[in-house]
């Protein structure tokens, strides 16, 4: 960061959108004081490793998968939910790797994604007007528990710690090697043509994995539990993320550390040989600024411009091209590679109007960025029964439009940001929150297993639908085949005709 006037609390001199007002300020300061003494959740070395890998994504040498819940809840901090989410991320990335023949950088919306931005500070429930639910780290979903409580930030820290600990234990004990494509059931796929396409991909992927094991890769003579290694297929990198909405908490988790000495020129200041110190947000590897908090003169942009972590910025229809370039000038003045990820979220009906202009403005500015598509947030609707939902066809329409528009602009779509879940309802079936997909989920089926207390998520089967679509696109791009946005996979999954 070029400007030396920044500090972890300099954001307090700026107006803060989505600010939470705590009635008990004394209790707030006590809780924040406690959080400042607690250990970091992630390390500088892990953050630097992610920055390096995001540099590869930026150069189109890897693909970024950013995925998880819209908002986590404390009650969902269970082995079953965490394992299901990580398992889905691993399965999704395996499918993409098969088609793209490039590594996948996995960043979960997990271990800290508790806060919710809201369009209004209050809401009507029956005849009552109460404070809006802002997420488990602020207040309760119960209308009688809406007063912001600082203790919930402390609880969020420990739930994040428990989640991250379990994620680490899963990924270092062979969990990644268990997600073999032959175990994926395709019985939910209604269309015979689509099932044939899916079977073709899974068979090819299965054969490739079995070939690597046959020649000795990914096959250990001694199991992990008996002292053997994890193997090439059994260990993966995984990073955590959340929206940096609660600046009181983010400031308390911001710590000053030397840049790891292995980074060479970065680690040495110009005046002396001792490592220079920088500020890391140690609550997550990656944080992003939301569409509601990206004001150029606001507190969130001020905070984000000073942390060493790689950051994301949501870009929607209300973002002017010149505003986007000015924002990049603020948060990445030194134009560092792997620093900024632009997460576009226009909606299927607006992506054609805005994306190309944003891409060209950034290209002309010379700023290095990663482009990923969030096809979820611009495509939310309300069903006739009053449930928030999304239509799978519009989700993949925005995604495939992004792929095409980037190609037309001489750019690349470097990744995708999805809200999905691998969790199962009590009856053992996937949740029913988004319409369509290969299972052709209908509106009258939404109430069957609707579990989200925030935005609707793709279920396991719908998520793999997206993975198959992306994998097929990159395989055809790599081999010179027909583009995916005109073939059977796209049309059978409900994509709009382009």
Features:
498 residues; alpha/beta; eight-stranded parallel β-barrel; two-stranded antiparallel ribbon
Give a topology summary.
Elements: H1 25-37, H2 44-58, E1 63-68, H3 79-100, E2 104-109, E3 122-125, E4 128-131, H4 151-171, H5 192-214, E5 239-243, H6 247-252, E6 254-258, E7 277-281, E8 286-289, H7 299-304, E9 311-315, H8 321-331, E10 340-344, H9 351-365, E11 370-373, E12 380-382, E13 388-390, H10 392-408, E14 415-419, H11 460-479, H12 488-492
Parallel strand pairs: 1-2, 1-14, 2-5, 5-8, 8-9, 9-10, 10-11, 11-14
Antiparallel strand pairs: 3-4, 6-7, 12-13
Helix pairs in contact: 1-4, 3-4, 3-11, 8-9, 9-10
Structure summarized in a few sentences:
This protein has 498 residues and is α/β, with parallel strands linked by helices. The protein has twelve helices and 14 strands. The chain starts with 24 loop residues before the first helix and ends in a 6-residue tail after the last helix.
Provide structural commentary:
- With 498 residues, the protein is α/β, with parallel strands linked by helices.
- The protein contains twelve helices and 14 strands.
- It has helices spanning 25-37, 44-58, 79-100, 151-171, 192-214, 247-252, 299-304, 321-331, 351-365, 392-408, 460-479, 488-492; strands spanning 63-68, 104-109, 122-125, 128-131, 239-243, 254-258, 277-281, 286-289, 311-315, 340-344, 370-373, 380-382, 388-390, 415-419.
- The strands form four sheets. The protein has an eight-stranded parallel β-barrel, surrounded by four helices.
- The chain is globular.
């Amino acid at each position: 960061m070029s400007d030396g006037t920044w500090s972890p609390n300099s954001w307090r001199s700026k107006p803060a959108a989505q600010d939470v007002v705590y009635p008990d300020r004394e209790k707030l300061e006590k809780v924040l004081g406690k959080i400042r003494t607690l250990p970091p959740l992630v390390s500088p070395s892990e953050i630097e490793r992610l920055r390096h890998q995001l540099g590869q994504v930026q150069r189109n040498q890897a693909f970024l998968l950013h995925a998880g819940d819209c908002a986590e809840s404390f009650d969902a901090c269970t082995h079953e939910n965490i394992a299901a989410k990580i398992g889905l991320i691993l399965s999704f990335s395996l499918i993409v790797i098969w088609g793209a023949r490039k590594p996948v950088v996995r960043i979960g919306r997990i271990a800290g994604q508790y806060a919710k931005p809201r369009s209004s500070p209050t809401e009507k429930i029956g005849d009552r007007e109460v404070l809006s639910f802002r997420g488990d780290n602020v207040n309760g979903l119960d209308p009688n528990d809406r007063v912001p409580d600082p203790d919930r930030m402390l609880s969020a820290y420990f739930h994040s710690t428990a989640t991250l600990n379990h994620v680490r234990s899963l990924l270092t004990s062979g969990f990644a090697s268990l997600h073999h494509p032959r175990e994926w059931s395709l019985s939910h796929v209604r269309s015979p043509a689509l099932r044939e396409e899916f079977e073709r991909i899974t068979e090819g992927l299965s054969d490739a994995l079995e070939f690597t094991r046959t020649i000795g890769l990914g096959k250990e003579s001694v199991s992990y539990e008996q002292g053997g290694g994890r193997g090439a297929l059994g260990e993966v990198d995984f990073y955590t993320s959340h929206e940096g909405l609660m600046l009181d908490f983010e400031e308390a988790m911001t710590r000053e550390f030397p840049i790891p000495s292995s980074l060479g020129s970065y680690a040495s200041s110009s005046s002396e040989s001792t490592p220079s110190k920088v500020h890391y947000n140690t609550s997550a590897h990656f944080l992003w600024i939301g569409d509601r908090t990206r004001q150029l003169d606001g507190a969130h942009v001020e905070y984000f411009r000073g942390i060493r972590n790689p950051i994301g910025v949501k870009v929607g229809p209300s973002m002017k091209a010149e505003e986007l370039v000015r924002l990049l000038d603020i948060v990445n003045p030194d134009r560092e590679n792997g620093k900024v990820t632009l997460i576009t979220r226009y909606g299927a009906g607006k992506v054609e109007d805005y994306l190309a202009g944003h891409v060209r403005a950034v290209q002309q500015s010379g700023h290095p960025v990663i482009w990923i598509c969030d096809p979820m947030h611009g495509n939310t609707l309300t069903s006739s029964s009053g449930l928030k939902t999304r239509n799978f066809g519009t989700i993949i329409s925005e995604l495939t439009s992004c792929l095409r528009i980037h190609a037309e602009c001489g750019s690349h779509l470097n990744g995708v940001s999805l809200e999905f879940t691998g969790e199962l309802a009590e009856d053992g079936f996937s949740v029913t929150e988004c319409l369509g997909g290969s299972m052709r989920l209908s509106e009258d089926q939404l109430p069957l297993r609707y579990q989200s207390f925030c935005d609707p998520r793709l279920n396991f089967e719908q998520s793999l639908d997206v993975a198959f679509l992306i994998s097929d696109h990159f395989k055809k791009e790599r081999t010179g085949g027909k583009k995916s946005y005109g073939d059977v996979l796209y049309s059978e999954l409900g994509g709009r005709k382009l």
